Amino acid sequence: MAQPAAPPLPPPRPDLPAPPADGPGAPKAASAGPQTGPATEADTGCLERLDKLGVRFEKLSPVQEKGCKIGNPVSVSALSNTIEIAPASVMECSYAENLARWIANVVVPRASEHLQSAPTKLLIGTAYQCRDQRSGAKLSEHAFGNGVDVMGFEFDRRPPLRVKFQSEGSPEAAFQSAIQKEACSIFTTVLGPGSDDDHGDHLHLDMRMRKGDYRICQ
Ligand SMILES: [Zn+2]
């Protein structure tokens, strides 16, 4: 099982303000500046939550190259005891937590409802990648370990499903539309087939922070 390699934390200092929560929607303290010291309490808390969720991961050293950065990176190989992720992918710890919650709370029940199957593998295209967004203006959330492209799923009792335009009225269409729609309450950007020309074969799920918690859900 995953053993976070973080050094032991110093005893708490009651005179210091509490570290910011690192749940969804909270600002990412780790991205505020170069992080070379010991892991923060927020970082350690996130790793502990991954363990509790049954996520299989390896803790990595903070990533910083060009403008790209991940403060608390993990390489994830499974999102639960029964659902692998292929290939193993690098992401920010808080992102991994959200991905695991989406799988457990959305994908598993919807697969059971619409496909009478349980997912066994999440097929990933791009996770962390240090490249410009397609528009060229800003770095993509992939550059911060805060975005993943979901290409499809494998299941225990049916053939794999690839994300694409599914035939209307099919169980596959109902499943894909449900998991895409419900991803919007967990991630701040959800793009898939039908959003634009770039997302015809995958779901892009990211956690970009915008003013007023504005979300893009298409
Ligand atoms: Zn993407």
Task: Estimate the helix proportion, in percent.
Answer: 10-25%
How many strands in all? 11
Distance between the termini: 37 Å
Question: Count of helices?
Answer: 3
Structural class: alpha+beta
| Net shape | globular
Number of separate structural domains: 1
- Bound chemical compounds: zinc ion
- The string of secondary-structure elements, in order, is HEEEEEHEEEHEEE
The largest pleated sheet is described as: 9 strands, mixed
The Cα radius of gyration reads 18 Å
Q: What is the averaged pLDDT score?
A: 85
Low-pLDDT sequence parts: 13-36
Describe this structure in words.
- With 218 residues, the chain is an alpha+beta fold.
- The protein has one domain.
- It contains three helices and eleven strands; from the N terminus they run αβββββαβββαβββ.
- Strands 1, 4, 5, 6, 7, 8, 9, 10 and 11 form a nine-stranded mixed beta sheet that branches.
- β4 and β5 form a beta hairpin.
- It starts with 40 loop residues before the first helix and ends with a strand.
- About 11% of the residues have low confidence.
- Zinc ion binds next to β7.
- Pfam families: Extensin-like_C (PF06904).
- InterPro entries: Extensin-like_C (IPR009683).
- This is Extensin.
